[in-house]
Structures are given as structure tokens and as C-alpha cells.
């Protein structure tokens, strides 16, 4: 296994921290095309970890393996100490409530109000909070954390693209996950709305004390939200370090990310 280029930064000390999510030696090929070639990752409690990779580098394949939508050829994924490939459906479903997702297309259900969209995960994962008869306080709390409590009875079509993404984040937060997985959280948004989402991601982390895995192409987003970054090149974690340390690197593959 190749060691990643460790662009060290003395301001972060990882040895004292516990990984909440760990990917070990993940491999996935399609035919004779190796997409993930022994990818490793540790997400520590309370950190914002950004993964950057060029288009086609295998970020989506990695996310699909992580959420159980795709089986890796080999390697392991451990979430809160549990190997996800060893879990039965029920236990996997339970564990999924500890991970909130904000995907690119984070589609809200068009035919449901904002309230109903947020109630959906509460009803689906009853085991987490029990059978809640009054969902309104939880719905309002989640909407408040994204600054949109006044949209509770609106339809998604009445919201701007940025507001829809914030509601989708509220829907991810309502189950109080320990980990949030953001896949291209700013894609398709104008620069001002992107900035709002980026600020919100920082606030959410402080308020909910989540650990976040953020997959993005957006260098600005990476600069603002990342505590640490991993650059995915040729199916492996090519380089790791803080944004500033990586940006200062003279390695040509690393420099290519910051042009
Ligand atoms: N189901 C599949 N069958 C065959 N090849 C696939 C499949 N899924 C992904 N690939 C291939 O794996 C490679 C990595 O794809 P992936 O979607 O993970 O890239 P990415 O890093 O997410 O790119 P982007 O930033 O453009 O979304 C691509 O070459 C893609 O064609």
C-alpha cells in the first residue's frame, strides 16, 4: 500500500483523536478499469474533512460504497466501530440514521410541504426517537438551524434553489446524525448562495458537533470549511494535509488542484 504524500501541518494533531468513520484499502474496478485502488480515509470526531478529486476520480463510487449502494471489491468501511458490510439490513438501517446526507441533487419531495419533507425521516426511522406524535418542535428546531422556520408550510417549488438546499440540510439534521456527508454541496449555486451554504455548514458543525465528510470541486468551499483535506488521485488518497499546507505544496499533482 502506498503511503500518501503527507503534507504535514503541525497545527493538527491526529494521534489523540478517535476516528468515527474509517475506510481501509478500498478497491473497486469496473471490468479492467480500477477506479479505487486501495483508498484509505479516517474521519475524526468533530472534524470537517474535505475530499477533492478530478472529475472521474472515483468520488461518487467511494460515496456509493460508503452508503451501501455499491459493494466494493475489497477493503472495509467502519462507521462508529461497526463494519458496514458485516451488518444485517436492520442494523445497517439503524446505523444510517447516524449519517445525514446532502447530495448534489438533494431533491425534496415536490408534492410534500417543507414540514412533510422533514417529517419523512422521523417516520421512517421511528426506532431512533420512538413514535413521536408531535413532530412540530423537531421540525422547527431543524428549520431554525438553517434559518428557515418560516417556510414550514410552503411547497418546495415556492423556495429558491439555495433555500431548497438549506431545507434539505435541515432534513438531514432532523435525525441528529453524528456524521454528515456532503456531496458537492455548492454545485449549481451562484457564488453568493454558495457562500451562504458554506457558512451554514460551518455553523451546523458547531451547533450539532457533527463530523463532516465533504466532497467538493469548489476550492473556496474547501478553504473555508476544511480542517483537513484528502486529494484523491489515481484511486488512492494521494495527499493529505490542511488547505494551506496543500496549497503551498510544490508537488505537481497537488498544485493542479489549486490552479
Ligand atoms: N456502474 C458503473 N459501471 C461502470 N463504470 C462506472 C460505474 N460507476 C462509475 N464508473 C466509472 O468510474 C469512474 C469514476 O466515476 P465517479 O462517478 O466516481 O467519478 P467522480 O469522481 O464522482 O466524478 P465527478 O466529479 O465528475 O462526479 C468513471 O470513469 C466512471 O465511468
From TrEMBL:
Keyword ATP-binding: yes
Keyword Transport: yes
One example GO MF annotation: ATP hydrolysis activity
Keywords: ATP-binding, Nucleotide-binding, Transport
Domain of life, source organism: Bacteria
Pfam families per the UniProt record, alphabetical: ABC_tran
Record-annotated ABC transporter domain positions: 21-259
Protein name, UniProt field: ATP-binding cassette domain-containing protein
Species name: Aestuariibaculum suncheonense
